[in-house]
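Exercise 7. Predict the joint structure of the components listed below.
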Amino acid sequence: MGAIVQYIQSYLASDKTPGAAGNMFWAFVYIMLVFVGLSVAVIAMNWLERKILAHMQVRLGPMRVGPHGLLQPIADALKLLLKEDIMPSEADALIFWIAPFVVVLAAFTVFVVVPFGPTHAITDMNIGILFMLGVSSLSVLGIVLAGWASNSHYPLIGALRSSAQMVSYEVAMGLAVVSAVLMTSLNATGTGTLSMIGIVQAQQAQGVWFIFKFFPLGLIAFFIFAVAMVAETNRAPFDLAEAESELTAGFHTEYSGFRWSLFFLAEYSAMIAVSSIAVTLWLGGWLRPFPNLLSGATWDQAFSFFPGLSFLFLAAMCFYNTVRMPKHPLFRIQTIGLAGFGVVLALIGLVLFIPAVRVRVQDIFWFSAKVAGFMYLYIWYRGTFPRYRFDQLMQMGWKVLLPMGLGVLILTATVGLWPLIQNSLWHP
Amino acid sequence: MDTMLHITTLHYLVLGAALFLLGVIGVLTRRNVVIVLMSIELILNAVNLNLVAFSQLWGGLHGQVFAIFVITDAAAEAAVGLGILIAFFRNKETVNIDEVNLLKW
Amino acid sequence: MLIGGILVITRRNPVHSAVALIVTLLAQASIYLMLYAPFVAGVQIILYAGGIMVLFLFVIMLVSIDRSIRERQFNSQWVVGIIAATALGGLFIAVYSKGKDIFPDRAFSVAEGDNTQKVATMLYGQYMFAFEIASLLLLVAIIGAVVMAKKRI
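Solution:
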């Protein structure tokens, strides 16, 4: 027992990610943690999306399954697993089988380089951001294969439209990413970095999140990426390819049960993945808000109470709703369930107040909080914006976002290297 | 682990040669034009593998830079080749190479 | 990777060939990682597997393959092709078995920390001209592909 504790402590004291340190066991533990965390996040997203959309549309959303519909995702998962597995008769069996797995693989492999903290990534590749962009472009392949293998018109058209859209907005995404990576090179040695942890550390060293750097250039680059990432994941308002009223669910029409749930899982994972790219590149990754404006040890301590406080706030909301539940005997189980959930949240919040835990959980909490903010934005867009027509979509991708991305890139390079240009202009 | 085979550069070169051979067989013997184009991509990949293997052997990064250029050129050539294929298919309604015989006497 | 290559050239269905080629390209990327070339591996995944193969799959779908699946698979000169490939293989074996002693016995290991920076320095320094020419080539390829595939120019 003492040996195990010592092993854990010796690991926690290291300053490299498990991949860099060549530590297979801890890398595997991290992979399992990320996998579990991602599954929990997707389940929570399912519930959150339905509830938040419902409240935006002045209705209540799922209320019956658990207290306030909290067990609804579990019911959905059970239903999907138990559904009959239909395969179209003329479909290409091999490709029909592997297409969902390709998409899920592409969506999950991205998380190998996502940095939850300075040493809390599975590995820190030298080409971190390039790897993320490349692997998320592999999901286009899975979508095309899925549309083709279904051997019917609607999925094929949906797949072609969806993949054309994703490929077009990948270009705009790439340009926005390049202008953010450019900002990492504005340090003393003049070399930037593509590694995700390096990008956040550059933001830390330069004392400003890249979204606020060279105002408004960072903001415009962030805006381009935010629009392109919504289009990349086929979410509203760019979800023509899978909109129910247009194409009867597009490329995953013929998939039922477990295979459809794989597509669903891949879509939400891709959303979380591109949100974490945006958070890392522009919003300062795991850094707490106001790193240089409110710097100092006391402010650090004040901000470190946030994780515990947020969980206690959620627990307080649970208790408030418990009190407001109808007093009918049929609702007794739901009331007890909600109160129990509130107690669990409160316990987690209290655990997060312990100083030892509080210091360690900071980075992961701020990163997850920012990504959760992006998830809320995604749901907000879905509830608010009307859908783009396909030609309007492609027009915006190529004629609006691409020139904007190029312009931002050139301006960022000029403004960022202005001292060098000045030197070479006036002292030839 | 001393009984394990060290993977020397020769192994990478042999792998590259094998891929090249497969690509050449594909180009010379297949009937479907699309598969011929895919075999050409195999050939280009084999060349890239050789370049990067030598770059690792001699330490300088020239091989890797050249490999990046080869990948870029392969993309351009695939795009143009597939454009030609589409134009050809629109005229002849088939992707059979044996039917490209308008110049045969 | 070899299995993927063999599958590419032997499948009857072009979509299966394309999937085998994707597998081959991804295996190639991991071999680049083994050769301490992470930037080339990343470029390979983005361009080849995520770009060119999408292009191939689009074209396969546009070109109807129902007729071609039922036709014969190998073309009419396959005998000559096999002979030529055998000759090439013999040449490879001869060259490699003669020259296999010039390679050192152990594999060099190169520090990987700043591979991207070094490649970038070389790309924008020594090979700047080739870089610009490559971008011009891509422009020509874009225009050429659009012109070739248009219905009326």
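Discussion. Residues 62-92 of chain B form the longest helix (31 residues).
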